[in-house]
Write a sequence for this structure.
């Protein structure tokens, strides 16, 4: 199959609409990551999503809707808490879990009695959703297990020849997948951290908590089963051995130099902040011809780090890095979502307070 990449125009939207109605899949940008969309009522489209991604089919999909969409068509009840969250954070990078209407198929929900719904704010995503008027199910448009795509080129890297159309809306603004909030239980719970942070959610829902599995993944007690089925899989993993550490610059470099002696067969690298690159340069430890340096941006601007993270993890593969260190970030605000993804990508972690 020929995979076409097209800018968002009236013509490409018409083409996307037609493909979706025929049970095909179309990749499109959102403010978080690119999604691989199918019409939510199309069994054919949904099975094409799972096939193109190589994704386990027990992993449920998020339904994307345009402003004005009647949620009661797919959600059985809209609790007052949901109204408050939607008022504050929709359209935007937040997904809410509701009890589902029977019409929502088991292939969307992975057999669960609940459905995940999100109203994206990205202008291209909004155009597609309003143009078609259809609810569109979409997981991230990557091959299962790889970092989520934040550009049309990333989607093409993974899905070339497997899908007919990629709508190109440029780079995703946030670069990490949406925050998922479950409102189907007594206590509202964050199942996946994202750009709508716990701090932001608490201002609207003071009793919101984190899924114990998300909290546990921050320590070495990494065995608690998460509530979002997709969070149990190893994700975002580069091919090489990534070590995420909160050591200071010179300690990180000392470890890397020791590894270079012991493992001359490996290809080495660093995924670190601009400040750390500058520090290591001042210390005379960089540049080093044996070390590929991937710049995550300023550690004082975590939204920049978030927007670059998946691209840098993909680059690590392009440079065929087999042994590389990543700099840990403070788990505050956006840092929580960054570390959630970074640690999932890591083969090894060296964090103070953990042994
Ligand atoms: O930002 C995003 O959310 C992107 C863009 C494309 O919208 N989508 C995305 O989809 O990240 P995906 O499929 O890669 O991740 C969806 C996550 C999975 O971890 C899945 O298990 C969880 O949402 N999920 C979906 N429906 C659920 C439900 N009913 N209950 C609990 N978790 C659910
Ligand atoms: Mg995904």
């Amino acid at each position: 199959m020929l995979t076409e990449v097209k800018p968002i125009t009236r013509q490409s939207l018409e083409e996307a609409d037609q493909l979706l109605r025929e049970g095909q899949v179309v990749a499109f940008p959102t403010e978080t990551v690119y999604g691989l969309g199918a019409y939510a009522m199309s069994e054919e489209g949904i099975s094409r999503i799972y096939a193109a991604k190589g994704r386990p089919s027990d992993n449920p999909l998020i339904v994307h809707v345009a402003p004005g969409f009647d949620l009661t068509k797919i959600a059985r009840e809209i609790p007052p808490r949901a109204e408050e969250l939607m008022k504050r954070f929709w359209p935007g990078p937040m997904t809410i879990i509701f009890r589902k209407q029977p019409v929502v198929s088991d292939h969307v929900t992975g057999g669960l009695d609940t459905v995940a719904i999100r109203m994206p704010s990205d202008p291209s995503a909004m155009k597609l959703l309003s143009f078609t008027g259809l609810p569109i199910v979409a997981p991230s448009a990557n091959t299962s297990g790889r970092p989520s795509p934040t550009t049309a080129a990333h989607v093409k890297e993974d899905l070339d020849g497997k899908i007919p159309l990629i709508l190109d809306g440029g780079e995703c603004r946030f670069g990490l997948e949406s925050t998922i909030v479950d409102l189907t239980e007594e206590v509202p719970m964050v199942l996946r951290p994202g750009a709508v942070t716990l701090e932001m959610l608490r201002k609207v829902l003071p009793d919101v908590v984190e899924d114990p599995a998300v909290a546990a993944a921050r320590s070495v007690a990494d065995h608690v089963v998460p509530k979002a089925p997709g969070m149990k899989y190893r994700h975002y993993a580069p091919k090489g051995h990534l070590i995420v550490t909160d050591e200071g610059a010179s300690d990180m470099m000392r470890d890397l130099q020791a590894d270079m002696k012991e493992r001359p067969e490996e290809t080495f690298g660093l995924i670190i902040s601009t400040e750390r690159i500058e520090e290591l340069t001042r210390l005379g430890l960089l540049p080093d011809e044996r070390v590929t340096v991937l710049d995550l941006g300023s550690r004082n601007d975590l939204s920049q780090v978030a927007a670059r993270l998946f691209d840098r993890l993909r680059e690590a593969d392009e440079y065929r890095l087999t042994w590389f260190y990543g700099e840990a970030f403070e788990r505050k605000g956006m840092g929580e979502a960054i570390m959630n993804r970074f640690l999932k990508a890591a083969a090894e972690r060296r964090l103070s307070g953990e042994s």
User: Anything to note?
Assistant: Residues 302-318 form the longest helix (17 residues). The longest strand covers residues 94-99. The mean pLDDT is 95. The two ends are 49 Å apart (CA to CA).
